[in-house]
Amino acid sequence: MKFSKGTDYALHAMAYLVWQKDSTDKLPVQELAQKLDVSSTYLSKILARLVKRKYIIATSGAKGGYSLPANWKEISVYDVIVAIDGEPTLFEDSFNHGSECKIQRLMMEVETDMIQALKNRSIEQLI
């Protein structure tokens, strides 16, 4: 399974916000982009998706920026992946063999295990 660059940026941004969680300052997108060495324009689009899902909080103004919500410990790595890339799929069976196809069953089992592992990992575990 390959995740997009957007998911990579989102997970790193979330990890940085978790690492900075004790700071009372909001983190401006330019500062976050500089810390991650990425485009602030692209990062802004990624962060907007996380704001829409309420995984981060955006505050405007001179002292504005991004911060974590009160329930940030409940956000899983899987939540962030889905916010950026949608529901991931690992395997597409090109044949219409149905449920008796052992290859499809194996791949679906592995995919289910991977998704559960990502759901069981909090963003707090990113740092």
From TrEMBL:
Coiled coil: none annotated. Gene3D superfamilies: Winged helix-like DNA-binding domain superfamily/Winged helix DNA-binding domain. SUPFAM superfamilies: Winged helix' DNA-binding domain. GO terms for cellular component: cytosol. Pfam families: Rrf2. Signal peptide: none annotated. One of its GO terms (molecular function) is DNA-binding transcription factor activity. This is Rrf2 family transcriptional regulator.
